[in-house]
Each structure stands twice: as structure tokens, then as C-alpha cells.
Amino acid sequence: MKHEEKHISSYSSLAIILVVLLSLTAVSVWVTGFHFGSLAVVIALVIASIKVRTVITYFMHLKFESRIMKLMVTGVFGLYALVIIITFVDYYFR
Predict the structure, then answer these.
(1) Which of 23, 30, 77, 94 is deepest in the core (most CB within 10 A)?
(2) Whose CA is closest to 62, among 17, 11, 15, 30?
């Protein structure tokens, strides 16, 4: 088994990520005040996807993982996006 080194993030980088996540939360709350119709769901999902990617990359240390792990996580998100797209297409044609 290969020896794996620990990755320690600095407090300043974690604080920056926290501010980014709080800002994205504020943006998602701010967007709900406008009436975008069915586009509101798309906007909310895009903001949520950005927040998920930020959390996985920095707090779960995906940026330090191997290439195969990154590909597997990308595949899961691709499958998730496919399910969301199929759901919207089904909803649109009803």
C-alpha cells in the first residue's frame, strides 16, 4: 500500500471558501425574490451545483485525490445532470 501524505489546508483558504459559500447562499436567497418562472429552478440548481463542487473540491480534498477518483466523481455528477435533464424534458413534453 502506498504511503499517502496528509493535506492540511490553511485557515485563510478555508475562510475564503466559507465566504464564497455564504455569498452563493446569499445570491440564491436573493434570486428567489425575482419571478423567473420555470427558469428559477435552473438558476437554483446551477448555484447549488457550484456550491457542491466547491465543498467537494476543498473541504473533502478532492483536488488532492488521484485521477481515477476525480473521474468517478465527475461520472456521478454527469449521471446526476442526465437525470435532471431527463426530468425537465419529461416535464416539458407533458
Answers:
(1) 77
(2) 17
Backbone angles phi and psi of 52, in degrees to 5: -65, -45
Predicted TM-score of the model (pTM): 0.72
Q: Is the dihedral of CA 76, 82, 85, 90 positive or negative?
A: negative
Look up residue 19 and give its three cell numbers. Answer: 465566504
The single-letter DSSP state of residue 59 is I
Cell digits of residue 2: 502506498
pLDDT digits (tens, 9 = 90+) for 13-31: 889 999 999 999 999 998 8
What is the distance between the alpha carbons of residues 41 and 25, in angstroms, rounded to a whole number?
15
Instruction: Give me 1's grid cell.
Output: 500500500
80 contacts: CB under 8 Å, gap ≥ 6: none
